[in-house]
Design brief:
The mean pLDDT is about 95. Helix 4 runs antiparallel to helix 5. With about 280 residues, the protein is an alpha+beta fold. The strands form three sheets. Strands 1, 2, 3, 4, 5, 6, 9, 10, 12 and 15 form a ten-stranded mixed sheet that branches. Strands 7-17-16-13-14 form a five-stranded mixed sheet, with no helix packed on it. It contains eight helices and 17 strands. The protein binds 2,5-dioxopentanoic acid and magnesium ion. 2,5-dioxopentanoic acid (DO4) binds near residues 84, 136 and 248.
Amino acid sequence: MKLYKTTRGHVLQADGRYCLIQQDWDEIINRDGLHAYLRAQLESVDSIEGTEALALIDKELLPPIGGQEVWAAGVTYRRSMEARMEEAKDSGGADLYDRVYHAERPELFFKALPHRVAGHGHRVSIRKDSAWDVPEPELTLFINSSGSIQGYTVGNDMSSRSIEGENALYLPQAKVYDRSAALGPCLYIPESGIDPDTTIEMDIVRNGQLMFRDSVIISRMKRSLDELAAYLYRECYFDKGSFLMTGTCLVPADDFTLQVGDTVHITIGDIGTLTNTVAYN
Ligand code: DO4
Ligand code: MG
């Protein structure tokens, strides 16, 4: 099942049918048994035509977030560890990444409040004081206030590699700024957990030319999704639930940096494609 947040209500899509739910987003999603709840909504709420639903999704789409905080996990794939060890070699911080990759405790960091999050079709930003910027395509969990994973979306953890590489203590500046996070296009709510063979794919296009394409399956991640969620909820209560980006494995070559006007397409399995164009704030 897919739930799209729009300016005119929330479009629920399942089995080729659509219905429009007029209810507060956070009240809908923050519950145990979200899939069963939405299944019941599909039976009780009047259906809408596919053309109407698709027009709403096309023209009125918002990021699938209400009042939740967005957090992120880091160095959950070997490729992320290796790339960061390389970028930090001159600052003396390289071994931090090796140590956190192998440690029991994962790296978790605060990424965004909802007003800093871009949706599908919106602009994401690179910092004007950064020389080396990349998108990070990440499976993103929706975890309810009881700490259970209820849904999934596509995330882009936009990052400044030059600022993080200069000094690991600059991580919040490399990661947290306006439009540095994108989520969308929908919240995907399968009946049971996401398939471990799910693929994350990313294309970066510049002036119509494909600059980068790569993909990975999520089972390559070193940690489990439940483990990441459990660590986040150890000493934090999220009254509306939270979103958790689960780390990147797709890293463009070191001579690549994003430019204004580039378009980033991230596709994750059955969830869909999140597309954003790069801009300055
Ligand atoms: O350690 C810094 C951030 C790591 C990260 O964002 C990732 O691995 O995706
Ligand atoms: Mg990341």
